[in-house]
Structures are given as structure tokens and as C-alpha cells.
Automatic annotation (TrEMBL):
<dbReference type="InterPro" id="IPR018752">
    <property type="entry name" value="DabA"/>
</dbReference>
<keyword id="KW-0862">Zinc</keyword>
<feature type="binding site">
    <location>
        <position position="532"/>
    </location>
    <ligand>
        <name>Zn(2+)</name>
    </ligand>
</feature>
<feature type="binding site">
    <location>
        <position position="517"/>
    </location>
    <ligand>
        <name>Zn(2+)</name>
    </ligand>
</feature>
<keyword id="KW-0479">Metal-binding</keyword>
<keyword id="KW-1003">Cell membrane</keyword>
<dbReference type="Pfam" id="PF10070">
    <property type="entry name" value="DabA"/>
</dbReference>
<comment type="function">
    <text>Part of an energy-coupled inorganic carbon pump.</text>
</comment>
<comment type="subunit">
    <text>Forms a complex with DabB.</text>
</comment>
<feature type="binding site">
    <location>
        <position position="345"/>
    </location>
    <ligand>
        <name>Zn(2+)</name>
    </ligand>
</feature>
<protein>
    <recommendedName>
        <fullName>Probable inorganic carbon transporter subunit DabA</fullName>
    </recommendedName>
</protein>
<comment type="similarity">
    <text>Belongs to the inorganic carbon transporter (TC 9.A.2) DabA family.</text>
</comment>
<feature type="binding site">
    <location>
        <position position="347"/>
    </location>
    <ligand>
        <name>Zn(2+)</name>
    </ligand>
</feature>
<keyword id="KW-0813">Transport</keyword>
<keyword id="KW-0472">Membrane</keyword>
Length: 827
């Protein structure tokens, strides 16, 4: 029996009971990273589901199954080599890591005598069948049909004439749509396919089993084929995976992604049923190749260039860090007891503001900590609105913040008013989309928007006094379920947790400022992507206010003292929010501050203003705003918050490249260029490694998600990038965006968020993780967490540690010493 015939024959060892083939489909779904709704944007590592494979192996797999590479075009590395961005020493270090004995000069020749060839994925039967005479290839038509079906199924806000029945699943909805699509035969070029769908079992599991039997595929091929088919429609695959992920966080079960796989497999079955014997054998042979992909598919040499590019940045980082602590006095070091302690989110944009604040206020100590301040909350606004999560997507909320005006009566009255307003708006919406009033009502009410359209077009809309749109309504912190106020023991646990997490357990300043960050832009579906990633794509002012309130609670302080954290009586906290578009910092709840602290607070506000001026000047070049004085520059960036034509209000976290876990004294006075996440960590306060374990399993993974989202949005722009902002249309209210007349969701970042029209504003480098801790502690923590170990060992992050002599780099299971960015050598 020849190889082709074997491929088309079911594997007798493959048990086709539901549980066995479902396991293969589940594994394929787990290879897809989830995405979140636009209004709850969370940066996601698009390769997260493949973290247990080495990065070059994943590159090979994606080339085979999608025809796309994780790496940049050859021209990118040629330019970096010719321009000195990759030095000879960088390439030499990369060659040594890879175990290649070529000289840099000899290896460099390959960049000029090799042309990059991309794979064309053609393992689907739909790839083999001819298309309609005047239509698209069958594969494109099927992706379009599934995309439109998903758009209609998941729409909860925009569509007014929904055909979806209550309780109907995605597979059921799709099958009914396919049976009703009278143009399906013509568009696909598959004669009789619509009628054929009438014979498909209505029960999803039965239909899937019959499809697998008809295709004759074993467990390994089923997993590979299912993943490859999901990669044909990566946006909706990621959305379905996100629905399942969020259900799991809430303790519910969901299998929407598996339903999508069933749809794709039934389409394969449909194409297979209409294929000739030769076409069936050809498809079977190509499917077999899906599980025979080599470790690098001949592209290992290009990974050497990419690694050299990354080493170039890491060398410059270590040169900036310079000598270790103790070798010289830290620039602008704060006094023994700081006048002010300002806690900022670890976000790379905070690095610039912190550095300039320290320059203008030598008495301040800045501290880096995750922007949700260790408070896993959802925020319930007044009115008929769903709660908004304000915590990282990896975590489940435990508490709820309920807006209050101070009394139950006032809250009830406001809720009734807002409910009535929403009912009125909904009535107008229904009338606007009604069959009899569509044109007359729209034309009449449209006139009411004329002046607003003019003002918005001329950028005349004035922003009102809130910082970055932050709502200053008071909130009541309660348990997520039941709504009871927090017990004192819970409050103490929360405060002790975030103080220990930021290595702040003594030497408290008289004034402590918890500084969240946020953003405000107009006409920008990806607005939440510029807000705090640690706050679920929301502004961080709410979390900062709660942290300050808990810190100031007298009963909490008494209990903290019993745990060894003694807060002086003269230490008080306030909250603030840093608007990353304008670099303005607004303080909240200052009325509760004692009169004795008012002068220090007023002085801090002046220092924040000057630090904002310096930060804006540093950012001006990237925003193409050079040449303005401070006042004019301030006005220019302010105008970007309300300009509905602005496609680049700020650069977000573009060019992020490293995260450092160390005391601020290690980095104070160092210009890290807004490329580094900074999280305070004191190894002397963490002998058992518990704090480090928490940092690597949460902030480091969040930073990895951010880093790899930017990476994928640049290197795999057509798969993991959101395309051109100017062509975006929002789907389903907040589900996502499509580009132009496309039907698949565009996930990741828009082109305008990573490219300025001439140059890339984000360098695609994997995250450098720098830790001030003994090697044994780092390795022990790494082994405790499989996800952390996978990221390190499979080269999704690059692990480093600070030493008294300089630093060490973790390479291929060993620590290699280097000094100030020099080439590493075995320890």
C-alpha cells in the first residue's frame, strides 16, 4: 500500500469515540490565544498557546499552517547589519549561542545571496478544488461565509434585525445559515453544496464525528489540521477562544472555539464529498505533511540574525545600566527618608515620567508596581451598565466597586433616572431601524448632530475637568458575590500584599502617592489599548484611589503593625492619574489630607507639572511635534485627546523591550528611553522567593503578553496586526474591528500604532527580563511555574540577572557572565 493510500485510510488505533477526537480538537483550540472586547482591551501574546514549543519551531509551524513567518523580511536585517544596529560582536555572540562556527563576515554573506521563500498552505481540500468561474477561491469564500456568520452570531449591540434564536449555539446558527444561503453553490464553485448541507446531522458532535470519519484522519493529523484551519480565520478563532477563556475565569464552561472547529471540519467534509479521487488523495498527502514539519524548516540561520538584533538592544541596555549598586553614588538619590513616595504602574511610559520627576524633585522616591495595585476588582457604574473589569486578564475578580453618592436613596434615584434615559435611547434606536421610519427619523434627528459634527471636525470640542476621562464618583468596595463590605482582615491582606509586592514595608514618606495611568482619545476603537493593561484596558485612577483609601484606614494600620509593617502617624496617601497622551497628572481625594501636608502636596503638583513639560519634550520627536515651546506643545498634545481625525494620539507601549525587577537605586538616573517596564524588588526582603514567584508569574507574564503582541503586530502584520485604522469598521459594538470589506476580525495593533508612515516605531525584540536576585532563587522560582519555565526555556523571553560585577545571561540552561554589555562567557 503506497504512502498516499495510507494517508487516506483511518488509523485503526485512533478511537473515534467522542472523548478521543474531542481531546485533539481541544488541544488545537488551546494553541490559539484569546482576545478581549475592544472596551476591555488586554494585550495578548498571540503565540501564548504555543509557548511550550521553542520559538523557531513555532515559526516553522506557522509557516506550514498559515504561510506566514514570525520574523521580519530579509531587508530588515540587511539594513540593521549595514547601519550598525547589528554589530559584529552582536552577530558573533548570536553565532556562539547557536553553536555555529562561521565568522560574522562569512555568515553575513548569506543575507545577500538568499531569497526568502514563504510556504503556501494548501493542505485543505478547499485549496485543491477550483473556484467559481468569476469568483474567489473556495477557501476565501468559506472564510468569508464563516466570518459573516460569526459577526451576526456574536453581535449584541449593532444589529437590530437579529436572526439568532435564544440558546442557539454557533454551530447550529452557522448550519442554518449555510442551508439558507442560495448563493453558496455559485460563490464556492461547488455544485450542490447547499443541498448537501441539508444532509449534515444537526447535532454538532455527530456531525463532527462523521466529518472526521469521512476525512479518514488520525489523532495527530486531526490536531494539526484543526489548528491549521483555525489559522485560516485567526481573528474569529481568537475571539471564540476568548469567550471560552473568560467563561473559565468565572467558573463556567464554554466550548465556542470547538464549535468553530466543527464548522471548519464540516466544510472540509463538504469539499471532500465533492472532490475527485485524485483530489482526495492529494489532500490526504498534504495533510500528512502537517505533522512532519522540521524544527526550523531551513530558517535557523535567519533566527541567528534576529537573535543578533536582540543582543544589540540588550548590549545597549547593559551599557546604560552601567556599574552595579555600590560602585558609585546614584544620581539624584533621595534622602534617607524621602519627602514623597510616588508609586507608578510598571508601564514603559511611566519610566519617562518617573525619571523626569526625580530630576525636578530630588526628595521623591518613585516606585514601580502593577497598575491595578493588587486589587482584583470590577467597577459597577450607576445605571444599567455591565461591570467593567479593572485587573489583568490572567486573573479573576474577587471584589466589586459600586458607585455611590453617599446614600441608598440618592443611588436609587440616580439609577432610576439613568435606566429611564437608556430606555428612551433604546426606543429611539428601535424607531431609527424600523422599516417604516428608517429614512424619515434618521434625516430628522440627523440635523440635531450637525453642530457637533462641525465642532468635532474643527477640533473645537473642549475637554472638561476630568483627568483622562476618570470618573471621580466615590465607590464602595464590597465582595464580588453578595455585596457585603470587606472584613478588616481582607483589607489588611490587600494592603500588606501590595506593600510587600512593591518592597515598601518601612521608611514610609510623609506623603505617598498612588499614581495610576489612563488615556483619552476620540473616534478610536482601540482607545482601551492605550489605557492600563494591568487594569483590563481601563484607566487606573479607580484602583489608585482604593489603594490610597485602604492605606489611610486607621484600623488597617493597627493590624499591619502587628504583622511588622508600621506606618508612621504622619504618613498619608493620596491618589493620582497620569494621562499618557498629555503627560498631565491629576490628584484625587485631596480634601481628606491633613492641613500639615498641604504645602508638600502643592509643591508636588508643581513638580509634576515640570516633569510633564520635560516628558512632553522627550516625546515630541516621536510625535513629530518638535519646535514648540512648552505651552504650545502642551496645547498640541491636549488637542490630540479630542481630535477625531488623529490616528496616532500617542505611541502607547511601542518599542517596549525589557522588564527589570530591582530596587530603584539600580536604575535611578539612567535614561532607559521609555522601553523598560520597571518593577521594584528588594532581594533582601525575599529570602524564600515568594515575592519573586509572584512577580514572575504575574507582572512578567503580563509584560510578555504586551511585548509579544507588539512583536506579532509587526512581524505578522496580516495575521496578528489590526491593519489600517482608516479602513476599520467596528463589529458587534465592542467585539472587534474588520478592515475594509473583510469579514475576519483584525486582532492585535493597528499599523498606525507601530509604524509612523516611514519607519517602524516598534523594534520586534523578545522581552529581556532582568532580575536582581541570586541565580539559585531565580531558577527555583522558574521551575515552580510551568508557564514561566516555558517562556524562558523556549526563548520567548531572555533571562538576565544583576551581579556585583555587572550581569549574567541565562543561555541554554547556563548562566554566562558579562560586564556592561560585553560578550558573555561561561561562569
Amino acid at each position: 500500500m503506497n504512502g498516499i493510500a495510507q494517508c487516506s485510510t483511518p488509523d485503526a488505533s485512533f478511537d473515534r469515540s467522542t472523548g478521543h477526537w474531542q481531546a485533539s480538537i481541544s488541544r488545537a483550540c488551546e494553541m490559539v490565544a484569546p482576545v478581549w472586547p475592544l472596551d476591555q482591551w488586554i494585550a495578548v501574546n498571540p503565540f501564548w498557546g504555543l509557548r511550550n514549543l521553542k520559538a523557531p519551531r513555532v515559526d516553522s509551524l506557522l509557516r506550514q499552517r498559515r504561510g506566514e513567518s514570525m520574523l521580519m523580511p530579509l531587508a530588515f536585517y540587511r539594513e540593521a547589519w549595514e547601519g550598525g544596529r547589528i554589530s559584529r560582536d552582536d552577530l558573533l555572540a548570536s553565532l556562539k549561542e547557536a553553536g555555529i562556527n562561521d565568522t560574522p563576515e562569512l555568515f553575513g554573506e548569506r543575507l545577500y545571496r538568499t531569497e526568502r521563500v514563504e510556504n503556501r498552505p494548501d493542505y485543505s481540500v478547499l485549496d485543491i478544488l477550483p473556484g467559481a468561474v468569476e469568483g474567489e477561491p473556495p477557501t476565501a469564500v468559506v472564510v468569508d461565509q464563516i466570518g459573516r456568520t460569526c459577526g451576526a452570531f456574536f453581535d449584541r449591540r449593532q444589529s437590530r434585525w437579529s436572526t439568532r434564536s435564544d440558546g442557539e449555539g454557533l454551530f447550529d446558527f452557522w448550519l442554518e445559515s449555510a442551508r439558507a444561503d442560495v448563493s453558496l453553490d455559485y460563490r464556492t464553485g461547488i455544485r450542490g453544496v447547499r443541498r448537501w448541507f441539508g444532509t449534515v446531522p444537526a447535532y454538532r458532535l455527530e456531525a463532527t464525528r462523521e466529518a472526521i470519519d469521512a476525512l479518514g484522519i488520525d489523532a495527530d493529523i486531526l490536531e494539526a489540521l484543526a489548528h491549521g484551519l483555525l489559522m485560516r480565520i485567526p481573528g474569529w478563532a481568537a475571539w471564540c477562544r476568548g469567550v471560552d477563556w473568560r467563561a473559565g475565569l468565572q467558573g463556567d464552561s464554554s466550548s465556542v472555539c470547538e464549535e468553530l472547529v466543527s464548522i471548519l471540519l464540516v466544510w472540509e467534509w463538504a469539499a471532500f464529498a465533492h472532490a475527485s479521487p485524485e483530489q482526495k488523495n492529494m489532500a490526504a498527502n498534504r495533510r500528512h505533511a502537517l505533522v512532519e514539519t522540521g524544527s526550523g524548516a531551513g530558517t535557523e540561520w535567519l533566527w541567528v540574525w534576529h537573535r543578533a538584533f536582540e543582543i544589540g538592544y540588550q548590549r545597549s541596555l547593559w551599557c546604560t545600566l552601567g556599574n552595579p549598586e555600590g560602585a558609585q553614588e546614584r544620581k539624584n538619590a533621595p534622602p534617607e527618608r524621602p519627602e514623597v513616595q510616588a508609586v507608578f504602574c510598571i508601564d514603559v511610559r511611566s519610566e519617562i515620567m518617573r525619571r523626569h520627576l526625580e530630576e525636578v524633585h530630588p526628595g521623591v522616591q518613585t516606585i514601580g508596581f502593577a497598575g491595578f495595585f493588587g486589587l482584583p476588582i470590577v467597577h459597577q457604574n450607576h445605571g444599567p451598565y455591565r461591570p467593567m473589569a479593572k485587573l489583568p486578564g490572567l486573573l479573576a475578580p474577587a471584589y466589586r466597586v459600586v458607585d455611590t453618592q453617599g446614600s441608598n436613596e440618592s443611588d436609587a434615584a440616580l439609577n432610576r433616572a439613568l435606566d429611564q434615559r437608556e430606555m428612551t435611547r433604546e426606543s429611539v434606536r428601535k424607531a431609527k431601524y424600523g422599516s417604516l421610519s428608517t429614512f424619515t427619523l434618521v434625516e430628522t434627528t440627523g440635523l440635531a448632530w450637525a453642530w457637533k459634527l462641525v465642532k468635532d471636525s474643527l477640533n473645537l470640542t473642549a475637554r472638561k475637568g476630568k483627568a483622562a476621562g476618570q470618573d471621580t464618583v466615590a465607590g464602595r468596595l464590597v465582595y464580588l458575590h453578595g455585596g457585603d463590605p470587606l472584613f478588616e482582615t481582607t483589607k489588611v491582606e490587600l494592603v500588606a500584599g501590595f506593600l510587600r509586592g512593591m518592597a515598601l514595608t518601612d521608611n514610609f514618606a510623609p506623603l505617598l502617592v498612588f499614581t495610576g495611568h489612563g488615556t483619552h482619545t476620540e473616534n478610536n476603537p482601540h482607545n482601551a489599548g492605550l489605557a492600563c493593561g494591568a487594569c483590563g484596558g481601563q484607566n487606573g485612577g479607580m484602583n489608585a484611589r482604593l489603594a490610597a483609601q485602604l492605606f489611610n484606614d486607621p484600623q488597617v494600620r493597627v493590624a499591619l503593625a502587628e504583622e511588622g509593617i508600621s506606618i508612621p502617624l504622619d504618613s498619608w496617601a493620596v491618589a493620582a492619574e497620569h494621562c499618557t497622551v498629555t503627560d498631565e497628572v491629576t490628584l484625587f481625594d485631596c480634601d481628606s489630607l491633613p492641613a500639615s501636608h498641604r504645602p508638600a502636596l502643592a509643591d508636588l503638583e508643581r513638580r509634576f507639572a515640570e516633569a510633564g513639560n520635560r516628558t512632553r519634550r522627550e516625546r515630541a520627536t516621536a510625535l513629530k511635534l518638535n519646535g514648540y515651546d512648552d505651552s504650545a506643545l502642551h496645547q498640541k498634545v491636549r488637542s490630540r485627546t479630542s481630535d477625531w481625525t488623529e490616528v496616532r494620539p500617542e505611541w502607547g507601549l511601542a518599542n517596549n523591550a525589557a522588564i527589570i525587577f530591582a530596587k530603584r537605586s539600580r536604575t535611578r538616573g539612567k535614561n532607559l528611553g521609555g522601553r523598560v517596564f520597571l518593577h521594584d524588588y528588594d532581594p533582601d526582603q525575599d529570602s524564600n522567593g515568594e515575592v519573586l514567584a509572584a512577580l514572575l508569574s504575574a507582572p512578567m507574564i503580563v509584560a510578555n503578553w504586551i511585548n509579544m503582541q507588539y512583536f506579532g503586530s509587526v512581524t505578522m502584520l496580516d495575521v496578528y496586526g489590526a491593519g489600517n485604522k482608516l479602513l476599520h469598521s467596528v463589529v458587534g459594538g465592542n467585539v472587534g474591528v474588520i478592515e475594509g470589506n473583510g469579514t475576519d476580525l483584525r486582532i492585535g495593533l493597528p499599523l498606525q500604532s507601530v509604524h509612523d508612515g516611514t519607519y517602524w516605531r516598534h523594534e520586534p525584540v523578545r522581552l529581556a527580563v532582568v532580575i536582581d536576585a541570586p541565580a539559585e532563587r531565580i531558577e527555583a522560582v522558574m521551575r515552580q511555574n510551568p508557564d514561566v519555565e516555558a517562556l524562558v526555556e523556549n526563548q520567548w523571553v531572555w533571562l538576565h540577572r544583576l551581579t556585583d560585577e555587572g550581569g549574567e545571561r541565562y543561555v541554554n540552561g547556563t548562566w554566562q557572565a558579562f560586564r556592561n554589555g560585553s560578550a558573555p562567557s561561561p561562569r
